[in-house]
Design a protein that fits this description.
Largest sheet: 6 strands, antiparallel
Helix content: 25-40%
Radius of gyration: 41 Å
Organism: Streptomyces chumphonensis
Keywords: Hydrolase
InterPro entries: Bact_Sigma-Reg, GAF, GAF-like_dom_sf, HATPase_C_sf, HATPase_dom, PAS, PAS-like_dom_sf, PAS_fold
Strand content: 25-35%
Protein name: SpoIIE family protein phosphatase
GO molecular function: phosphatase activity
Shape: elongated
Strand order of the largest sheet: 7-6-11-10-9-8
Amino acid sequence: MRSAVITARAAATFEPVGRSVAAARGFVRDTLQGWGLSDIVDDAVVLTSELVTNAVVHAGTSAEVLCLRDGDGVRVEVVDRYPEREIPLRDATTAPPGPDREGGRGLLLCAALATRWGVDYTASDKRVWFRLQLPDRPVGTRSAGPALPDEALPVAENRVRVGVAQTDAVGAVTVWNDDAAELSGYPADQVAGKPFTDFAAWPHTPGTGTGIAEALLLSRWEGTYGLRRSDGRTVPVYASHLRVRDAEGEPSTVCLFVRDHERAVLQTPQRATAPEAGNGPGESRERATDPFEIFIGSPAPEDLDGLLQRTVERARDMLDADAAYLLLATDDETELEVRASTGLASARQRFARVPVEAGTGRYGSARMPSVHEDLAAVPGAVPVLTGTGMRSVVTVPLKVEGRLTGSLGVASESPARYTNEEALRLQFAADRIALAVESARLTELERLRRGSLSFLVEASDLLAGTLDRDQTLALMAQMTVPTLATWCAVYTIADPASDPELAYVLHEDEDRIDGLKALLAKVDPPEPLLAPGARGWNAPGEAAHSTALRTSLRSLGLGDAHSSAPGTSLATASAVGGETVVLPLVARNRVIGMLTLGKPADERFRQEILELAEDLSRRAALALDNARLYSERTAISQSLQRSLLPPELPEVPGVEVEVIYRAAGEGNEVGGDFYDLFPIRDGSYGFAIGDVCGTGPEAAAVTGLARHALRLLAREGFTGPAVLERLNAAILDEGSRSRFLTLLYGELWPQENGGALLKVVCAGHPLPLRLRQDGSVEAAAEPQPLLGVMDDLELYEQTLTLDPGDVLLCVTDGVTERREGTRMLGDDGLAECLAQCTGLTAGAVAARIMRAVERFAADAPSDDMAILAMRVPE
């Protein structure tokens, strides 16, 4: 089956539980990223999630995930132990499974995303596998060429020397490496501090185009010139310049150069040039054989950001402009989004959106070439250039098959700089680049959508894994920061009549969270609207700007020292000064909150990120509402449960009393067992311990009925048998809601001589045990019929006396029926434990019995347990 040579292998086994799906996704993601295959990680994670879900959730078996890497691809296999469950076949009359069907979606995804996939059966397992082909270009490279025969390779000397020079902001040399010294003949100490133009023989005629001084100021430049050597000769070199800035913002230029015939080391593969005569000996000029290739520059076609940035830089250089920008159309062609610019405040402009058709004088001409001679005469004609100081601009559309895909603009600070001739030149270049730009845009969009699918799969899994409201709020914020936004704030709305409340705030810089929270507390929350989609919210940005202004005035001694919000600072203000959007959290047709996402100063969201955030907000809203409903239900349940138990036990003179209660099940405070101890009249007390058959609200109703009826009847002066007979009648009156009830009820009279007199009735309940001072244990009552079964009961009470040092132990059947396999603690085991408690206080006796019961089995108790211990001190 697998003929390729396996170069790497990783495997893991996952148990048939829901959390294994997330663990399998993490295993595949870590494995492929460790192998350097980030390009296919998202597809592999999505497919693995579906197949492992089929195995551990639907098939209910353990799953083994196997990752196999070979020379040109990766194969992922998911093996389960359910081979008899085959893939459902269909004939020509059967409709193919749709994406909305619950079953078969994993196989649909395999067919859509995988290069190949299949199912293999053996006698013991079923193996579903898929294969993902690696990209054509090697991972980590921007471009790659085919393997060539040796005779076709470029010619170079034995050692290729790459000169490295760096110039400061005014063009003086600050760095000169050994290869640069070898190529020029000048050692570093003779070059340092001198203008780089002293060593570069520029082939162009001064004043007619870009010179070396101007080239050093460009963000990126690549081409040929001469390098003056110390012996007077000029050596042709091929150079690449990159403008950078250091941490303090000081600009400089890094220059790499090699001998001209070794230009393949630096030359971008997309550039094709032919030499022509220069101005002097050994000099050469670069002549473009294809204007399209010259215009694109170095980025590979699928590298959209690099392609767009090189495009605007080449457009600016081509028309000798001060600035250039490129906008891409949205899918519906109603807006244009700034994606690259040079010579402008790109951080402020990037991802800004302007309408395509916005009226005369604006972008109504986006579909046709346009020349604006003076923007001052037509304010707002080009929204991207508003406030930039640009006066003249030429814009041309990017079109593919007649469809508007973008717009390219070149601007100058001088008015009337461009004519129709420049517009035609720019349009020619735009026509050559439009198809490559659109192809790269679609590639990026597909990659983003696949990554979004993987992100939403993991987000849904995390949100579904908790029903805690606070944890859900934290997950919402942590999933958006920093993946989607720089900071996030979640507002919640308790009910339609309540105002939004700031519930959670998160910033990618933890030191700014407190300041951000203080800043948001100053502004009114956004208005909760049911309309879907993201909408802008200017209040945080305005508050940040106001805070920054007051901070600046205070620094000059002109403002009120106490005028800004506590905890806010200039850094915090700048951190929230960018675009802010609000997405409603809508669940069950009601706005239950708002998800607010923000960017730092001068940054905007791209449309695809907002669409992803909208998808996340829908899932988060349902998770938050489910957590709210669960919290409300839990609070109500716990409140009702607490009402079934006495709030506190009274002090009984001369008798120690201790109660330990454990309700089985997560989140339960009260189960079917109950207890009570209450004063009846002066000098007498009633006590009870019981167990209602069954669980749930019906059992709880009988528990409440029994506890309150016992108190009422006992205080009316009825004897123990009469109390239980009337309680039995009340239970039977409940009809279908009635439940069997085992109950031990007694009355206690502390004696002046230090003992205690007890009268007890044991109606179907485990018998109470009496521990004497000599360590002997005996039953303290006889069994009688339980309640809730027969109408006529003949009950009687038994009298016993507790001497000083004696203990009376009453338990429910959760204690005696504690099991470990086939063994059960039972009455004998309980009596044996009690016999070892001689001399202990009531509290110590109850604690030791509970500890012995818990240690009897390794599993958590499956039944409620109640222990009531009473002891007469010695």
